[in-house]
């Protein structure tokens, strides 16, 4: 069974980008057994990165690839920079020995073809799409590995991504755009639902603070119940819907032909199309 302790000082992990997502992943790796001598961190804002992960010695952080030990041969390079910074990050990495190195990217819109055009057709690349709850270890990440990634390397990537929450895989890279539309952008849909629900409460006379509190706890509580219950969302909805009751009256609006279901399809399709445009 693959473990983070399998990543050694001989073939260490290099994390490029230690912002909120990269920092959260690193903290999870260290808690999961990754040893301090098996990781190096690159971030131009090195003091901020050190402050984010105080459990790692300051000398493990560098503000550029050029400062890394000259004989370093990484086993894994995790790319956690913003998409617009990826060109420069890959250019900097050309100075490293990367034979048999796996490149694991969590940058939106950057395709496998993008990486192999820069790194070469033999490069082992994993493209992953996490979402923002990963910052507290409650996200879901879906990955796609190209044919150069071995089963063992993919298993290690799975363990690395587990630091952010649940992990799943697709066998077609094009499905990452659908993943982006559902789970990558999905937290924003939920946050807006809280805004809309609270706003509706205010129209009925609730003060803003109480309306926000009711909406937030309702969404968070319902999500926790859904996660822990043996019933699926459909059954849980039915459980709370009494015949001719208040919930049924509300759902008659939400579930009508032009209601939330149709609007959500339009919403997700818009995100999906934009994801495909960004990848072109």
TrEMBL record:
InterPro entries: 6-PGluconate_DH-like_C_sf, NAD(P)-bd_dom_sf, P5C_Rdtase_cat_N, P5CR_dimer, Pyrroline-COOH_reductase. It is found in: Cytoplasm. Belongs to the pyrroline-5-carboxylate reductase family. Its main location: cytoplasm. Catalyzes the reduction of 1-pyrroline-5-carboxylate (PCA) to L-proline. Transmembrane segments: none annotated. NCBIfam families: proC. Keywords: Amino-acid biosynthesis, Cytoplasm, NADP, Oxidoreductase, Proline biosynthesis. One of its GO terms (biological process) is L-proline biosynthetic process. Residues 15-109 form the Pyrroline-5-carboxylate reductase catalytic N-terminal domain. It comes from Paremcibacter congregatus. PANTHER family: PYRROLINE-5-CARBOXYLATE REDUCTASE, PYRROLINE-5-CARBOXYLATE REDUCTASE 3. NADP(+) binds at residues 80-83. This is Pyrroline-5-carboxylate reductase.
